[in-house]
Amino acid sequence: MKTFAMRAGTLAALLWVAACGDDTGSEGVLARAENHTFTVEEAVRLLAGQPDLPNEPQVVTALADLWVDYTLLARQLSQDSTLASLEVGPMLQGRLEQEMILALRDSVILADTVMTEDELRELFVTYAPGAQVRARHILFGFPLQATDAERDSVRAEAQAIRDRIAAGESFEDLARQYSQDPGSASSGGDLGFFRRDEMVEPFAVAAFELEPGELSEVVETPMGFHVIRTEEKETPAFEDVAPQFRQQMIQMRSVEAESLYVATMAEEAGLTIEDDVAEVVRRIVETPDIDLSRGARGRVLVRYQGGTLTVGELQTFMQAQLPEGRAQLAQQPDSVLVENVLQGLTQRELLVAEAEEQGFERTEAYVDSLSAAVKVQLREAAMVLGLAPIQPEGTESMEQAIDRTVEALLRRIVSGQQDVIPLGMVATGMRQSSRAQVFPMAAIAVVQGVARVRGPAPAPAASPIPAPTPGGAAGDGAGAAGGQTPDGGAGG
Q1: Beta strands per DSSP E along 204-280
Q2: Are 280 and 4 in contact (CB under 8 A)?
Q3: Beta strands 224-234; 219-221: pairing state
Q4: CA neighbours within 13 Å on the CB side: how many for 80?
Q5: Ramachandran region, residue 168 (left: φ > 0; alpha: ψ -120 to 50; beta: rest)
Q6: SS3 for 51?
C-alpha cells in the first residue's frame, strides 16, 4: 500500500502563539469540508482495525487531509461532472513557474562538461558508481527541535566516545553500550555493505572518504551525531563503468553550475532572512493548512532587492508539497529548516522573475491546454478512486451519498486495497475556495480512542539511517492514475 501518512512534527508546535484560527474544531469533529464533517468517532472506527498503521497524530491528520480532498472532489463532480466550472489555472502556477525556470537554466547556465580521461579517473576515486563500503557507526540521537544547548551536549558526548575509540577502546563494545540505533547496536554498530546513495549524504560522504580501519570525526545528520569506522571497500573497475560515469559527472557539473548561478543571483539581490522566524517556519511546515489572520499572513520572513517573502507565500508553497516532503523538512533542526526552506523559496522567486524578464513566460493558449489536460486527469483519478459517478441509494441525499462513498474509499485505503492518489495543487485550490479545515488537536482524541480499542502496541523497530525519499511539489508531469497527482506531481 502506498502510505498516506508522514507529516511529522511535535504537538508542541501546535501551541504556536500567533493570530491563528481554531485548531480544535467543535467537540468530536476532526475535519470539515463545506457542510460535511469527519468526526473523531468515524476516524477511530476506520483506524482501530488496522494494527499495521501507527497510532500517531500525524497518521490521523494525514487521513483527515485525504478525507477533505476527496470530499471536495466528490462535491465538485456531483455539481459539475465535466469540471468545466473548476478554475485550475491558478492551481498550475507552481508547474508553470518550474517550466520557466528550466527554460531559463537551459538558456543561461553553461557547465564545463569536457573531461579528459585523466580527469575522469581522478573523479572516479571519489565518486565511483557501484562502489560499496562496509562500515560501523555509533548513533547519538538528539530530540526533535533540540535547543542549541541540547545539541552541544550530545555532540560533546559523541566526541568523548570518539576519543575513547581513538585511544584504543573497542568500537564494537562502545557501540553496543552507547549507540541509539537498535538496528545495529547489538552487532557492534555494523551496518553491512551499502552504496553511497543508500545513506543520507553527510554519513555517506564520511564513510566513503575513510580508508578501511579509519575513524571519522563526529558526523551530523538529521538523525543525530555519528562516529563512523569504515571496515571494507568494494569498487568496480574504471573500464567497466567509464561511459556511465562520464554522464554522471556531466550531470554533476551541470548541477554545480546551476547552484553557483542561483547563489550569485541571491547574493546580488541582498537576500536577508529576518530574525526570530524559525518558530513560524516550523509551524507552517508542520501544519500548512492552519487558518491565519491577514496580519499573520503578511508577516515578512525574507527581504531582497525588489521584493519580500511573506508567511502567506510560504504557506501557499507548503500546501502544495507532498506530506512526505513536509515530514522530512520537519525533522530538520531550526537553523537548517529556515535556511533550506526560506532561502530555497526566495531563490525560486528570483529565478521566476528573471525568467519572466528573459521572456520565458507561458502563453495563455498553453495554460488553457494544460488546464484542459488536468481536468481530464482529475476525472480519471476520480473514477479510479470510485468518486465518480456517485449515485444516492434509496432515500439518500447526494450529500449522504458522498459521505458514504468517501468513507468506503478511506476504508479501502487504510486496509491496503486502494492506492492513494494525491490531488496536489488541485486539492490546494479547492480548499482555498471552500470552507474546509482539519483540526490537528482533535487527532489526539482519535489516537486515544484507537488506543482504547486496540490496547497497548509494541514500540516500532528502528532502522539504521537510510537516505530519505525526496518529496516535492505537485504539479510537474502527467497522468492521474498509477501514482501521480492529477496535476502531474508524484503520488505518495
Answers
A1: 219-221, 224-234, 272-273
A2: no
A3: antiparallel
A4: 11
A5: left
A6: coil
State the Cα–Cα distance between residues 93 and 99, nearest whole angstrom.
Answer: 10
Q: What is the CA radius of gyration of the chain?
A: 25
Among residues 117, 105, 134, the alpha carbon closest in space to that of 245 is found at 117
Please report, as a single letter, which amino acid is at residue 383: M
User: Which pLDDT value is given to residue 42?
Assistant: 96
Whole-Å CA distances, 132 to 127, 232, 292: 11, 8, 49
Pairing between strand 190-195 and 132-140?
A: antiparallel
Amino acid occupying residue 441:
M
Confirm if 421 and 486 have CB atoms less than 8 A apart: yes
Is the domain covering 130-235 a CATH 2.30.290.10 domain? no
d(Cα 147, Cα 89) in Å, to the nearest integer?
43
478 strand-pairing partners = none
Q: How far apart, in whole angstroms, are the C-alpha atoms of residue 286 and residue 332?
A: 12
Q: What amino acid occupies position 291?
A: D
3-state secondary structure of 134: strand
3-class secondary-structure state, position 437: strand
Q: What residues does each domain of the chain span?
A: 130-235
Residues 351/265, Cβ–Cβ less than 8 Å: yes
pLDDT confidence bin for 471, thresholds 50/70/90: very low
Say how far apart CA 310 and CA 272 lie, in whole Å.
13
Cα–Cα distance for residue pair 120/104, rounded to 1 Å: 29
Residues composing the chain: 492
**Residue 464: is its pLDDT beyond 50?**
no
Helices (H), 398-476: 398-414, 424-432, 442-454
Full-model pTM? 0.58
Distance CA 32, CA 379 (A): 23
Torsion angle, CA of 95/323/441/30, rounded to 10 degrees?
80
β-partners of residue 36 are: 33
pLDDT of residue 411: 96
Does residue 302 sit in helix, strand or coil?
A: strand
Q: Which single residue is written with the C-alpha cell 560522504?
A: 205
Cα dihedral 342→344→349→352 (10° resolution): -170
389 cis-preceded (ω within 30 degrees of 0): yes
